[in-house]
Every structure is written in structure tokens, then in C-alpha cells.
Amino acid sequence: MPLGRAVAVVPRTGPAAPRAVGGVRAATRARIEQAALELFTAAGFEQVTIEEIAAAAHTSRRTFFRHVGSKADAVWGDFTAHVDRLAGLLEAAGDDVPVLPAVFAAYVEVNDYAEADLPLLRQRMRLILTEPALLAHSQVRYADVDRVVAGYVARRCGEGPTALVPRLVATATRAAATTAFEAWISGAAPSLADALRTAFGQLAAGFPDLR
Predict the structure, then answer these.
(1) Other Cβ atoms within 10 Å of 86 Cβ, number
(2) Nearest CA to 191 among 80, 114, 137, 95?
(3) Most exposed: 26, 79, 116, 174, by fewest CB within 10 Å?
(4) How far apart are the first and last CA of the chain?
């Protein structure tokens, strides 16, 4: 997830300036996350302490916990917002679009990052996909994604979200997306969008090249 951008501070016109405060909070979190990612990449996730991250970000341990919460959260970024956006895209897709194309399109759009954000995204995903502690933690995060996708598929199919087909679509599309990220990070795919579209195309067609 891309780092939040600082919002310019504007003169106060009343008792509060929420936009300015939000910008300061976002900028502080972004600074902490970037410091953490650089330290984790250089020294390893388990080896870096919260005190070291706070020092590198020129802040305090208390500020770290107020803005981020944990070392894993520093890597994942605001994943809740990512899941919420995925849910919003699926909700906005409507019922005229077939189920699988709607899920695929939502995945591609929610993972459409600006060019400037890609180096940081590579750092995040390389850590998430290789660090043992984060691999275990990812199951909790991915369960939120599966819940959103399965819920959407269930509604469209008239089934419960725990039925076989909604769960199968959720886990299969997430696996395809994860594999696309791995291919992109390794350099086997020219771009993340291309990797996602190729993975989803193969999945939708039942791997036609293998028949």
C-alpha cells in the first residue's frame, strides 16, 4: 500500500483544522513506515527493534505505537483501507458485470499504483512474501480479503458466504494475485498490472495453454 502523502497545513479559520491534522498524522505514519521498511530490508524483520525504527524515523516509541501499532503493521501499511476499497469496488461493479470479471477488475484496480510508489511496494511485498514471521501474519490479513470476495460472490450467486463456490473463488483469486506479485517482484513479469491480468486470464480460462 502506498505511503500516505502529507497535506499542506492551511491557516486555521475556526477551532479545528482536521485536514491539517490528518496530513500530519499521515506524514508521521509514512515516515515511520519508510524507516521500518528500510531497516527490515537491510537487517531482517526479526532483528530490528521498535526503538531502532523510532530513532530512524526521528520520533519516539510512544509515537510509533500511536501511529502504527506493531512491526508487522509497519510493513502492511493501512491494509484495512485497502480491503475497504476492494469491497467498495465490488459493490460499485453492479450486477450487470459477470462475477469473475468483476472480481478480477476490482483486484487490478485496487493494486494500481503510481510509478513513484512501486519501489516502496516492492519492499513491502518482498518482506511479506519472504519473512517467516510475516508469512504467518499474512493469513490473518488475507482472511479479510477472502471474506470480502466470498461475500460478493455469495450475494451474486444467491448462496451463503461459507458455501464452496464463494470460498473457492475467494481463495483462488487471492492465490492468483499473490503469484502475480511474486512474478513481478522476481522480474518475470514486465509490470504488476500485466502479471495480474495474465494470472486472472489463465484462471478464468482454465489454463488453456495446458490443455
Answers:
(1) 21
(2) 114
(3) 116
(4) 36
